[in-house]
Design brief:
With 328 residues, the protein is α/β, with parallel strands linked by helices. Helix content is 44%, strand content 15%.
């Protein structure tokens, strides 16, 4: 299989490094660096990966690596990982099945991989990449069906509620910035736990109107973001290429806890918040990872099954000389 991946994840680098890699990868994937190469960019809050196919994988990997080096101001050597052929297939299968996620078995990554594949499919892709993504997505569903090991009491929504209780903010007003899926999920969970003073600030106000009425959430226009300092707890789950909250906005603020789930980060990480606790997705991930360590036996069983299934698909790929119909 002429496939490879070059990537970085929460396991190998902090969020600041991943932000720089994401910006660099977005530049690179819009350029024709290698004449016969095709690639798919997968970018989430936990990982940034370029999956590629070319006649000379080693040369393409070198070109990508050198191009990244020209854009990045830190040492890449021990932060990036690369896999080729079967190892690349196994890696993506682990990603889609949630075995490589912070929250084991999470379903959101399945959707993110599918969206990345569909976006890339707007351009012509080689058979190898179609096969890789279609089969990896199928394996993700198989593993979740066979191993329902996701802890029902673990998730970002639940951890944020526990943080609110820890800071004694579970009876206070909470502001969510961004009409994102993760914010909507957290809002629904907070409501189920009795938190009623919930507000949403978004650029996409028109899209959020009906949802906010249904959920009884106060809707704020993005121009009102300066009101953030009036909320004891603020949760950022939005896409932005630059910070939208700074320390100067929180002078004499009521805010005590800010959680930044955005990638790139929406809250200036260099600002000093002497009276405010600022947590990013890396901090939340660390909390969740600690709680999931008891699932090690089930993870081993799932890994073994996934390895066998990948080997089986590779054998099918190698024996087949027919083109593969692109269907997801």
């Amino acid at each position: 299989m002429h496939i490879g991946v070059l990537g970085i994840s929460y396991k190998s680098a902090e969020i600041g490094c991943r932000e720089q890699i994401l910006a660099a990868c977005q530049k690179l994937t819009n350029k024709e660096l290698v004449q016969d190469a095709s690639w798919i960019l997968l970018a989430t809050c936990a990982r940034v990966e370029i999956y590629f196919s070319a006649s000379d994988l080693s040369a393409t990997h070198s070109v990508l690596l050198n191009a990244l080096r020209s854009e990045i101001c830190f040492d890449l050597e021990h932060k990036l990982y690369a896999y080729f052929g079967v190892d690349c297939f196994l890696h993506l299968a682990r990603v889609t099945s949630g075995l490589d996620s912070v929250i084991l078995g999470e379903s959101e990554i399945q959707r993110q991989v599918k969206v990345a594949y569909q976006l890339a499919s707007r351009k012509k892709l080689p058979h190898d990449l179609h096969f890789l993504f279609q089969k990896a997505l199928r394996l993700g569903k198989t593993i979740r069906t066979e191993f329902p090991f996701v802890e029902k009491n673990i998730g970002i929504d639940k951890e944020l509620f526990l943080l609110a209780k820890c800071f004694k903010l579970h009876t206070s007003a909470v502001l969510f910035i961004g009409y994102s899926e993760i914010n909507r999920k957290i809002i629904s969970y907070f409501k189920s736990k009795g938190i009623k003073q919930l507000s949403l600030c978004t650029r996409n106000r028109q899209a959020a109107v009906e949802w906010s009425k249904k959920e009884d959430v106060l809707l704020l226009d993005f121009s009102q973001i300066e009101l953030s300092s009036q909320f004891p707890m603020v949760v950022c789950g939005t896409y932005t290429d630059h910070p939208i909250l700074y320390a100067k906005q929180f002078i004499d603020a009521k805010t005590r806890l800010i959680v930044d789930l955005s990638m790139p980060r929406a809250v200036d990480p260099l600002s000093l918040y002497p009276k405010i606790s600022l947590l990013d997705i890396g901090h939340i991930n660390a909390i969740i990872e600690t709680k999931q360590q008891k699932n090690s036996l089930q993870i081993q069983e799932a890994e073994a099954m996934l390895f066998q299934l990948v080997q089986r698909y590779v054998a099918v790929f190698q024996s087949s000389k027919r083109g593969y119909e692109c269907v997801v």
